[in-house]
Amino acid sequence: MSTGSSRAARASPSSELTKAGVAVALTLVAGYVDAIGWLTLDRVFLAQMSGNLMLLAVHIVANESGHVSLQADAIIAFFLGLVLTGSVIEIGMRHRWRRIFVAALVVEFCLLLAFALAGGAFLPPGSQERDSANWPTYALIAVVAFAMGAQNTSLRMAGILSVWTTHMTGTLSSFSEEVIVCLFSLLQPRNRRKARGGFAAGRLREKHPTAFKNIGQSAALLVAFLAGAIAGAAGFKAVGVGRAMIAPLVILLAVGILDWLVPLTAFPSSVEQE
User: Fold this and answer.
1) What is the pLDDT of residues 85-134, one digit of tens each?
2) What is the three-class DSSP state of 269?
3) Phi–psi pair at 133, nearest 5 degrees
4) Domain boundaries in the chain?
5) Is 252 exposed, middle or buried (0-12, 13-18, 19+ CB in 10 A)?
6) Which long-range contacts (CB under 8 A, 24 or more apart) does 132-138 make?
7) What is the DSSP string of 13-38?
8) Nearest to 179 by CA among 212, 203, 202, 201
9) How far apart are CA 211 and CA 185, in angstroms?
10) Vertex 171, ends 169 and 176: CA angle to 5°?
11) Which of 16, 17, 184, 244 is packed most tightly, with the most Cβ within 10 A?
Protein backbone atom coordinates (compact mmCIF):
# COMPACT_ATOMS: atom_id res chain seq x y z
CA MET A 1 0.00 0.00 0.00
CA SER A 2 1.34 3.43 -0.93
CA THR A 3 1.98 6.19 1.55
CA GLY A 4 -0.96 8.21 0.27
CA SER A 5 -3.37 5.29 0.48
CA SER A 6 -2.15 4.35 3.98
CA ARG A 7 -2.80 7.90 5.18
CA ALA A 8 -6.24 7.78 3.60
CA ALA A 9 -6.98 4.54 5.42
CA ARG A 10 -6.04 6.08 8.74
CA ALA A 11 -8.29 9.05 7.99
CA SER A 12 -11.37 6.84 7.42
CA PRO A 13 -14.46 7.56 9.52
CA SER A 14 -14.13 4.26 11.40
CA SER A 15 -10.52 5.02 12.29
CA GLU A 16 -11.37 8.52 13.48
CA LEU A 17 -14.26 7.14 15.55
CA THR A 18 -11.95 4.56 17.11
CA LYS A 19 -9.42 7.22 18.08
CA ALA A 20 -12.13 9.37 19.61
CA GLY A 21 -13.44 6.36 21.52
CA VAL A 22 -9.96 5.65 22.90
CA ALA A 23 -9.62 9.29 24.02
CA VAL A 24 -13.00 9.15 25.77
CA ALA A 25 -12.08 5.87 27.50
CA LEU A 26 -8.76 7.27 28.77
CA THR A 27 -10.44 10.48 29.92
CA LEU A 28 -12.91 8.42 31.93
CA VAL A 29 -9.94 6.63 33.53
CA ALA A 30 -8.38 10.00 34.40
CA GLY A 31 -11.54 11.26 36.10
CA TYR A 32 -11.94 7.97 37.95
CA VAL A 33 -8.36 7.96 39.26
CA ASP A 34 -8.39 11.68 40.09
CA ALA A 35 -11.48 11.26 42.29
CA ILE A 36 -10.00 8.32 44.18
CA GLY A 37 -6.73 10.17 44.65
CA TRP A 38 -8.47 13.27 45.98
CA LEU A 39 -10.47 11.20 48.47
CA THR A 40 -7.58 9.08 49.72
CA LEU A 41 -4.31 10.96 49.31
CA ASP A 42 -4.70 14.11 51.37
CA ARG A 43 -6.69 16.16 48.90
CA VAL A 44 -4.14 16.05 46.08
CA PHE A 45 -5.15 16.02 42.42
CA LEU A 46 -3.42 13.21 40.54
CA ALA A 47 -4.60 13.96 37.00
CA GLN A 48 -5.22 17.73 36.89
CA MET A 49 -2.25 19.88 37.82
CA SER A 50 -3.93 23.31 37.66
CA GLY A 51 -5.56 22.71 41.03
CA ASN A 52 -2.29 21.51 42.53
CA LEU A 53 -0.44 24.62 41.38
CA MET A 54 -3.07 26.83 42.99
CA LEU A 55 -3.02 24.81 46.23
CA LEU A 56 0.77 24.88 46.23
CA ALA A 57 0.68 28.68 46.25
CA VAL A 58 -1.96 28.76 49.01
CA HIS A 59 0.02 26.38 51.22
CA ILE A 60 3.26 28.31 50.66
CA VAL A 61 1.60 31.52 51.82
CA ALA A 62 0.03 29.70 54.78
CA ASN A 63 3.43 28.19 55.67
CA GLU A 64 1.98 24.67 55.58
CA SER A 65 5.13 22.79 54.67
CA GLY A 66 3.53 19.33 54.79
CA HIS A 67 0.92 20.24 52.20
CA VAL A 68 3.50 22.08 50.10
CA SER A 69 5.55 18.90 49.80
CA LEU A 70 2.48 16.85 48.85
CA GLN A 71 1.46 19.21 46.05
CA ALA A 72 5.06 19.44 44.84
CA ASP A 73 5.31 15.64 44.85
CA ALA A 74 2.33 15.34 42.51
CA ILE A 75 3.46 18.12 40.18
CA ILE A 76 7.00 16.80 39.84
CA ALA A 77 5.86 13.21 39.28
CA PHE A 78 3.30 14.29 36.68
CA PHE A 79 5.96 16.34 34.87
CA LEU A 80 8.37 13.39 34.88
CA GLY A 81 5.60 11.20 33.46
CA LEU A 82 5.12 13.69 30.64
CA VAL A 83 8.81 14.05 29.84
CA LEU A 84 9.97 10.46 30.19
CA THR A 85 6.99 8.88 28.46
CA GLY A 86 7.03 11.52 25.74
CA SER A 87 10.73 10.88 25.17
CA VAL A 88 10.20 7.12 24.88
CA ILE A 89 7.36 7.64 22.40
CA GLU A 90 9.49 10.06 20.37
CA ILE A 91 12.29 7.46 20.18
CA GLY A 92 9.75 4.87 19.12
CA MET A 93 8.31 7.19 16.48
CA ARG A 94 11.79 7.80 15.05
CA HIS A 95 12.31 4.04 14.82
CA ARG A 96 8.82 3.55 13.37
CA TRP A 97 7.61 1.29 16.19
CA ARG A 98 3.99 0.97 15.19
CA ARG A 99 2.82 -0.16 18.64
CA ILE A 100 4.66 2.47 20.69
CA PHE A 101 1.35 3.65 22.16
CA VAL A 102 0.98 0.24 23.80
CA ALA A 103 4.25 0.82 25.65
CA ALA A 104 2.80 3.95 27.29
CA LEU A 105 -0.34 2.03 28.22
CA VAL A 106 1.73 -0.76 29.77
CA VAL A 107 3.58 1.77 31.95
CA GLU A 108 0.30 3.32 33.09
CA PHE A 109 -1.30 -0.07 33.70
CA CYS A 110 1.59 -1.31 35.85
CA LEU A 111 1.68 1.87 37.94
CA LEU A 112 -2.07 1.88 38.53
CA LEU A 113 -1.93 -1.82 39.37
CA ALA A 114 0.73 -1.03 41.99
CA PHE A 115 -1.54 1.69 43.36
CA ALA A 116 -4.46 -0.76 43.51
CA LEU A 117 -2.43 -3.40 45.35
CA ALA A 118 -0.67 -1.04 47.76
CA GLY A 119 -3.68 1.20 48.22
CA GLY A 120 -5.90 -1.76 49.01
CA ALA A 121 -3.77 -2.41 52.10
CA PHE A 122 -2.93 1.17 53.01
CA LEU A 123 -6.29 2.85 52.25
CA PRO A 124 -9.30 0.89 53.57
CA PRO A 125 -12.86 1.61 52.33
CA GLY A 126 -14.23 4.94 53.48
CA SER A 127 -10.84 6.30 54.62
CA GLN A 128 -10.14 9.94 53.97
CA GLU A 129 -7.03 12.02 54.59
CA ARG A 130 -4.90 11.08 57.60
CA ASP A 131 -3.57 13.25 60.40
CA SER A 132 -0.17 13.48 58.77
CA ALA A 133 1.33 12.28 55.52
CA ASN A 134 3.95 9.53 55.60
CA TRP A 135 6.16 7.95 53.02
CA PRO A 136 3.47 5.61 51.56
CA THR A 137 1.36 8.69 50.85
CA TYR A 138 4.18 10.37 48.95
CA ALA A 139 4.98 7.16 47.10
CA LEU A 140 1.39 6.54 46.03
CA ILE A 141 0.95 10.15 44.91
CA ALA A 142 4.13 9.94 42.83
CA VAL A 143 3.18 6.60 41.27
CA VAL A 144 -0.29 7.67 40.17
CA ALA A 145 0.66 11.21 39.11
CA PHE A 146 3.45 9.78 36.93
CA ALA A 147 0.91 7.40 35.36
CA MET A 148 -1.46 10.26 34.63
CA GLY A 149 1.34 12.31 33.08
CA ALA A 150 2.22 9.34 30.89
CA GLN A 151 -1.40 9.05 29.77
CA ASN A 152 -1.84 12.75 29.13
CA THR A 153 0.98 12.97 26.60
CA SER A 154 0.69 9.58 24.91
CA LEU A 155 -2.15 10.25 22.44
CA ARG A 156 -0.58 13.48 21.19
CA MET A 157 3.02 12.25 21.05
CA ALA A 158 1.99 9.12 19.14
CA GLY A 159 0.14 11.25 16.57
CA ILE A 160 -3.18 9.61 17.36
CA LEU A 161 -5.32 12.54 18.48
CA SER A 162 -4.53 16.12 19.56
CA VAL A 163 -6.33 16.05 22.88
CA TRP A 164 -5.35 15.95 26.54
CA THR A 165 -7.10 13.28 28.57
CA THR A 166 -6.50 14.85 32.00
CA HIS A 167 -6.52 18.58 31.20
CA MET A 168 -10.20 19.50 31.35
CA THR A 169 -9.63 23.28 31.49
CA GLY A 170 -8.17 23.14 27.98
CA THR A 171 -10.96 20.87 26.81
CA LEU A 172 -13.59 23.23 28.19
CA SER A 173 -11.89 26.17 26.45
CA SER A 174 -11.83 24.27 23.15
CA PHE A 175 -15.48 23.38 23.61
CA SER A 176 -16.37 27.05 24.04
CA GLU A 177 -14.50 27.99 20.86
CA GLU A 178 -16.24 25.25 18.91
CA VAL A 179 -19.64 26.40 20.19
CA ILE A 180 -18.86 29.95 19.02
CA VAL A 181 -17.81 28.72 15.58
CA CYS A 182 -20.91 26.56 15.21
CA LEU A 183 -23.28 29.32 16.32
CA PHE A 184 -21.80 31.93 14.01
CA SER A 185 -21.68 29.45 11.14
CA LEU A 186 -25.39 28.82 11.54
CA LEU A 187 -26.08 32.56 11.66
CA GLN A 188 -24.30 33.15 8.34
CA PRO A 189 -26.33 33.14 5.11
CA ARG A 190 -26.61 29.64 3.68
CA ASN A 191 -24.30 30.38 0.73
CA ARG A 192 -21.55 31.62 3.08
CA ARG A 193 -21.55 28.91 5.74
CA LYS A 194 -18.56 27.17 4.15
CA ALA A 195 -16.49 30.31 3.92
CA ARG A 196 -13.41 30.38 6.17
CA GLY A 197 -12.98 34.12 6.17
CA GLY A 198 -15.97 34.89 8.37
CA PHE A 199 -14.03 34.81 11.64
CA ALA A 200 -11.64 37.55 12.63
CA ALA A 201 -9.64 35.38 15.05
CA GLY A 202 -7.17 33.06 13.37
CA ARG A 203 -7.83 30.31 15.89
CA LEU A 204 -11.55 30.29 15.05
CA ARG A 205 -10.85 30.31 11.32
CA GLU A 206 -8.75 27.18 11.81
CA LYS A 207 -11.54 25.46 13.74
CA HIS A 208 -14.28 26.31 11.27
CA PRO A 209 -14.00 23.31 8.90
CA THR A 210 -14.22 20.73 11.69
CA ALA A 211 -16.05 22.59 14.46
CA PHE A 212 -19.28 20.61 14.23
CA LYS A 213 -17.36 17.34 14.59
CA ASN A 214 -15.04 18.59 17.33
CA ILE A 215 -17.84 20.01 19.46
CA GLY A 216 -19.13 16.47 19.95
CA GLN A 217 -15.66 15.20 20.75
CA SER A 218 -15.01 17.88 23.37
CA ALA A 219 -18.42 17.36 24.95
CA ALA A 220 -17.77 13.61 25.12
CA LEU A 221 -14.42 14.16 26.86
CA LEU A 222 -15.97 16.48 29.45
CA VAL A 223 -18.82 14.05 30.15
CA ALA A 224 -16.38 11.13 30.34
CA PHE A 225 -14.21 12.87 32.94
CA LEU A 226 -17.26 13.77 35.04
CA ALA A 227 -18.70 10.26 34.74
CA GLY A 228 -15.34 8.74 35.62
CA ALA A 229 -15.00 10.96 38.69
CA ILE A 230 -18.50 10.03 39.89
CA ALA A 231 -17.81 6.32 39.33
CA GLY A 232 -14.44 6.51 41.04
CA ALA A 233 -15.80 8.25 44.13
CA ALA A 234 -18.72 5.82 44.35
CA GLY A 235 -16.52 2.79 43.75
CA PHE A 236 -14.01 3.76 46.42
CA LYS A 237 -16.77 4.46 48.95
CA ALA A 238 -18.35 1.09 48.25
CA VAL A 239 -15.40 -1.30 47.97
CA GLY A 240 -12.15 0.57 48.70
CA VAL A 241 -9.17 1.31 46.49
CA GLY A 242 -8.12 -2.21 45.56
CA ARG A 243 -11.36 -3.44 44.05
CA ALA A 244 -12.45 -0.02 42.80
CA MET A 245 -9.30 0.18 40.65
CA ILE A 246 -10.32 -2.94 38.72
CA ALA A 247 -12.53 -0.86 36.42
CA PRO A 248 -9.85 1.53 35.08
CA LEU A 249 -7.38 -1.34 34.78
CA VAL A 250 -9.86 -3.28 32.63
CA ILE A 251 -10.37 -0.21 30.42
CA LEU A 252 -6.61 0.23 29.96
CA LEU A 253 -6.25 -3.47 29.14
CA ALA A 254 -9.00 -3.23 26.52
CA VAL A 255 -7.44 -0.14 24.92
CA GLY A 256 -4.04 -1.83 24.88
CA ILE A 257 -5.42 -4.95 23.18
CA LEU A 258 -7.22 -2.78 20.62
CA ASP A 259 -4.05 -0.88 19.77
CA TRP A 260 -2.03 -4.08 19.58
CA LEU A 261 -4.49 -5.56 17.07
CA VAL A 262 -5.08 -2.33 15.12
CA PRO A 263 -2.18 0.09 15.80
CA LEU A 264 -3.41 3.68 16.00
CA THR A 265 -0.01 5.39 15.96
CA ALA A 266 0.28 7.82 13.04
CA PHE A 267 3.73 8.75 11.80
CA PRO A 268 4.42 12.14 10.17
CA SER A 269 4.55 11.91 6.38
CA SER A 270 8.29 12.72 6.41
CA VAL A 271 8.90 9.65 8.58
CA GLU A 272 6.68 7.37 6.50
CA GLN A 273 8.51 8.26 3.32
CA GLU A 274 11.99 7.40 4.65
Assistant:
1) 999 999 999 888 888 999 999 999 999 999 999 886 676 554 454 445 68
2) helix
3) -75, 145
4) 16-164+226-265
5) buried
6) 132/66, 133/42, 133/66, 133/69, 133/70, 137/41, 137/42, 137/70, 138/69, 138/70, 138/73
7) HHHHHHHHHHHHHHHHHHHHHHHHHH
8) 212
9) 9
10) 95
11) 244
